[in-house]
């Protein structure tokens, strides 16, 4: 892969080294922390907290206020905290243990039997530690489960053993996925309302949607890890419409502001962190931002010695659908593009140039 850098350089690299892969406008940043004279933090920034109950059960005025509040946060920093979502919060607590069980209950040999590979637009399966991408030596194990990994459609031929090293975990995580999927249409409806579009115009695209349930397992950090220059997960943006992240119990998530300052995200237990992805930036004609974020070591050494888990759910569109700037927005900056082309051109940054699927190629 000519012109690419190795992972060791990834701790020193600037995002501009990979800008040729970006399909939306991105600001410059260093992938790792303290790449020059140290990072600048904004400790006064406060993320907007939005009560989804107002959209789900409120009147027209409640819905409008929620849409305006959420949309303003997405346009400003691309992140918000969602309360009143209706997902059983006990599932969030249980999923921390289920995630730990997934990664610690099988040998590396057995996990490698599920090594990640492209399915449609998305790389699904197991990612070993330091191998979540070709450019990030991230201190995390990851596992991505797409729609086919869950028995959501009562398919008589469904076999969890094709996707899960422990088949008993599938129905557990299916509970969480099922409840969070119910939020896709209302959240998208509120965002579309803010953008001046019909709230229901994406409902058909988010009916039985494609998604990625990513499970992250961050082992305790050793002194060598802390000195390596790697992060638990280095700076990146999400390639989706939006991501739903139940608030992790261990500190680490940081978000980059438009002024180039980092903000620590400390959402309350039981809430869901929502952030904008590249798909949504593209269709909103850059009105909404796909914001850079990372997972860094906690400030408290005692927390750094703990395992950290997270389980973000990414909202995707189907591979052969089109990403187009919303038709009512003036002066579109981007041409229509197939989802699979958009997605894989972007993620070729992480997986190699031959990962990209161009228009007319097979979706796999």
Task: Give the tags.
single chain, alpha+beta, Jelly Rolls, ten-stranded mixed beta sheet, four-stranded antiparallel beta sheet
- Nearest-angstrom radius of gyration? 19 Å
Give the distance, in angstroms, between the N- and C-terminal Cα atoms: 22 Å
Please trace the helix and strand order, writing H or E for each element: HEHHEHHEEEHHEHEEEEEHEHEEEEH
Q: At the first level of CATH, what is the class?
A: Mainly Beta
> Helix tally?
11
Q: Taking all residues together, what is the mean pLDDT? A: 93
Described by strand count, sense and barrel closure, the largest sheet is: 10 strands, mixed
Share of residues in strands: 15-25%
The rough form would be described as globular
Proportion of residues in helical segments = 25-40%
Predict the CATH topology.
Answer: Jelly Rolls
Uncertain stretches of 5 or more adjacent residues: none
In the CATH hierarchy, the architecture is: Sandwich
Report on this model:
The chain is an alpha+beta fold. The chain has one domain: Jelly Rolls (Sandwich), CATH 2.60.120. It has eleven helices and 16 strands. The strands form three sheets. Strands 1, 2, 3, 4, 5, 6, 8, 11, 13 and 14 form a ten-stranded mixed sheet that branches. A four-stranded antiparallel sheet has the order 7-12-9-10, with no helix packed on it. α3 (60-76) crosses α7 and α4 packs antiparallel against α6 (169-181). The protein is globular and about 50 Å long. It starts with 6 loop residues before the first helix and ends in a 13-residue tail after the last helix. The mean pLDDT is 93.
């Amino acid at each position: 892969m000519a012109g690419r850098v190795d992972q060791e350089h990834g701790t020193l690299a600037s995002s501009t080294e990979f800008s040729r892969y970006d399909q939306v406008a991105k600001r410059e940043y260093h992938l790792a922390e303290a790449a020059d004279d140290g990072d600048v933090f904004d400790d006064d920034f406060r993320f907007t907290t939005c009560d989804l109950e107002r959209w789900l059960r409120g009147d027209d005025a409640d819905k409008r206020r929620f849409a305006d509040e959420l949309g303003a946060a997405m346009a400003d920093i691309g992140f918000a905290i969602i309360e009143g979502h209706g997902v059983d919060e006990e599932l969030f607590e249980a999923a921390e243990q289920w995630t730990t069980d997934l990664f610690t209950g099988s040998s590396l040999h057995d996990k490698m039997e599920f090594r990640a590979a492209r399915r449609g637009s998305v790389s699904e399966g197991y990612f070993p530690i330091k191998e979540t991408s070709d450019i990030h030596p991230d201190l995390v194990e990851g596992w991505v489960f797409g729609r086919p990994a869950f028995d959501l459609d009562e398919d008589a031929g469904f076999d969890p053993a094709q996707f899960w090293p422990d088949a008993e975990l599938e129905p557990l995580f299916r509970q969480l996925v099922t409840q969070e999927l119910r939020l896709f249409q209302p959240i998208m409806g509120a965002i579309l309302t803010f953008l001046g579009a019909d709230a229901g115009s994406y409902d058909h695209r988010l009916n039985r949607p494609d998604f990625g349930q990513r499970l992250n397992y961050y082992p305790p950090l050793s002194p060598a890890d802390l000195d390596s220059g790697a992060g638990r997960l280095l700076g990146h943006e999400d390639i989706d419409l939006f991501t739903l992240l139940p608030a992790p119990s261990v500190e680490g998530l940081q978000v980059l502001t438009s002024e180039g300052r980092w903000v620590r995200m400390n959402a309350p237990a039981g809430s869901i962190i929502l952030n904008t992805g590249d798909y949504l930036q593209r269709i909103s004609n850059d009105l909404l931002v796909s914001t850079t974020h990372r997972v860094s070591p906690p400030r408290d050494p005692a927390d750094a010695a703990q395992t950290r888990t997270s389980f973000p759910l990414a909202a995707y569109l189907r591979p052969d659908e089109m990403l187009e700037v919303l038709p009512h927005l003036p002066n579109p900056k981007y041409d229509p593009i197939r989802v699979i082309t958009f997605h894989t051109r972007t993620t070729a940054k992480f997986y190699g140039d031959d990962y990209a699927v161009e228009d007319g190629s097979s979706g796999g």
